[in-house]
Amino acid sequence: MKKIRGILLAIMLGMLLSMLGNTEKQGRQEEYRQQLTFISPLPWNDAAAGLEKAGREEKSYVKLVSSRVIHYEKMAEAIRAAIYSEADGIIVAGAVPEPQMVEAVNEAAQKEIPVVLMDNDLEGAQRISYIGNDNYQAGQLAGQDIKLATGGKARIGIVVSYLDMQNQKERMNGFFDEIEDSPQLQVIEVVECHSDKLLVMEKVSEMLLEHPEIDALFLAEGCASDVVGELLDEEQIQELCIVAFDGNKVLDYVEQGLYYATLKSRMQEQGIWTVRELKNYAEGKPVEDEVRIKVWHATQENVEKIKEEAMEEAGEFQWQYY
Fold this sequence. Notes:
The protein is an alpha/beta fold.
């Protein structure tokens, strides 16, 4: 009899725990209107700040997924993992124009999971919206800075991540259009660094050794913007007029006088936009095909103010790594 009673108690306890588990799960589902997944090549804490802020306002849970080293094949796999987990929406940041990336985005669309691209658009990708910088304007500002800093006479080296990335092409177009009427501003070489620290050091060192006449650099992507500043700070390369784009240390470099100026993405604002666009899509409201956000433009005159604004976006966030 005692044995039977024990079995009955175990069954009842199991049923109770199951009911509590289902209630908890239902509570979580009611708490959040959307379960979103954000996937980036590296942890982008400034974007995460905007995503979580908008998530709180819109009752959207945002899972943050990234890698400790850039690995685009695994990034495509992370998109597929979000599809298998039946996310309500996927946000992909900093994607490169590789077939596996476009295919992964399109697989989500086929499963009727909306995808928003952030920072770089992908030709052929079936995304519902693109949120990014006004890259053409940023390129123009970089051209204006080098004109002003050099008196309109310089031999320029340019560093990009990938020449075929849409955001890089837009920045280059803006830059070249801006300096077109300045014949004494000559672009000597453009090099790709694939956002890789070792490749930046190799390519920039080679460029300066082969072209010692270069006296100005436009660093059109974040990794190069950080690494070249380190080299300058360690006096491993000659003093140059430098205009940068993004990076974690660029505002410090401008403040120290190592860089003439930098452009910096407003990633928190981009994060806020993506969550709101996915909410609008879920509610059947109109969604913008693309949103262009103006960048910060920091010089020694305003860098302290911009650092204060950028610090408001800083924070520590819980990332899951692929």
